[in-house]
Amino acid sequence: MSTFTRENHGRPAAPVRIVHMGLGNFTRAHQAYYTENAPDAAEWGIAAFTGRRPDQARALAPQDGLYTLIVRGSEGTSYEVISAISRAHTSDDAEALRGYFASPELAILTSTVTEAGYMRAADGSLDSGNADVAADIEALRADPLAEVSTFPGKVVAGLLARRAAGAGAMTILPCDNLPENGPAVRRVVTDLAAAVDQGLPGWIDENVSFATCMVDRITPATTDEDRSEVAREMGYDDASPVPTEAFSEWVVAGDFPAGRPRWEDAGVAIVEDVTPFEERKLWMLNGSHSLLAYAATIRGFETVGEAIMDPEVRGWVNEWWDVAGEHLEVESEEYRAALLDRFENPNIRHLLAQIAADGSQKIPVRIVPALREEIAAGRVPDGPIRAIAAWVQHLRGHGAPVKDAQEDLVKGLVGSDLDETIGNVLEFLGEDLAANTEVVDRVKALALELVPEE
Ligand code: CS2
Q1: Does residue 64 contact residue 13 with C-beta atoms inside 8 Å?
Q2: Which of 1, 104, 360, 444 has its CA 20 to 30 A from that of 403?
Q3: Is the CB of 289 under 6 A from ligand 1?
Q4: What pTM value is reported for the model?
């Protein structure tokens, strides 16, 4: 067995010009993969910070940030060593974070902190009622060098250091499945900045560009079999390889005043407006994922691949795609066929329980917009209604276990019976939906179809 280090693999670490928050499998299969494959990769190293769990930084440290991408196409598997992560830090390394922000070399901050990590209230503003957010604001008001715990808190701490150092303009590029993720992040960061230091929002306006993107690559969690496979095939021990599909897409819009890697030469689409691509991906792919995560686990399926082979479940997905496709500006037929292939990929084991997490952040952006369009056109179709009905039953304890960053909120949605829970869930999704008796009746009918009551 050879050792898995930069020296052994002839991969010197590139200087850090990108900071990434939220070091997990997805960013390693996506942003780091594109950065690795850009022709100017030698100039663009990533310093990545973990989320709350330090494991990933600890696993990567002995192997100098290197890891193996296991690309599982439907026809076969290939392996790629990725060396774009020059440094991996645990989330509490506040000094390192401030150090990067204070350097004029830093050009870009990217993030994959999950939908819940952005700490948005229902209207998109900063959720300042959240205890962690409130604690970060108080801490930074008292001391700009204070330790903070939330994503917007850390960004503001970094920007305070950057302003103090006079380090100049940079770009923030969020890489999570939020519609219009650039403006969404601008909002929470500016809100938190304003609460900490009245002069900071003005400085942010002048110095920070918020770019927007659509990200896509199905990336399951790493298993012990993945580790053994890499040892067998590659002849070294990798503590943290990343299994992913062959398909990958990244569509980016925005300004990069301090530069960026030549991502376009690595397959990234640079566009003026991300929205049509974002909606297609969020509604078609992520929307059907959420439908499967709740509805198909009630039927006993564990993975996307198993569920999509079931004729009843596939019918539900097709019903949803018929509706979602209706309201997209870009073509959806070929996209849909490609999605089926991706879902059916026999070499990818994507757990529905993983996708089921954080429904309170996902259902509103993946399912509700197309439902609203339908209601406006005078229809209440089963496609989106079934996803909501399945989420209702999931919250009541059916199918995948409930795991949600807004734990208290989702617990509070569960009433003493089905009717009450439906009322609460629809109220949470929008008063217009709760007040629509046809919507209420259809959600109930499909909830009972999923979980019959005596
Ligand atoms: C999934 C996504 O977990 C989820 O909610 O829908 O992680 C999905 O696999 C990715 O967005 C694919 O690009």
Answers
A1: yes
A2: 444
A3: yes
A4: 0.96
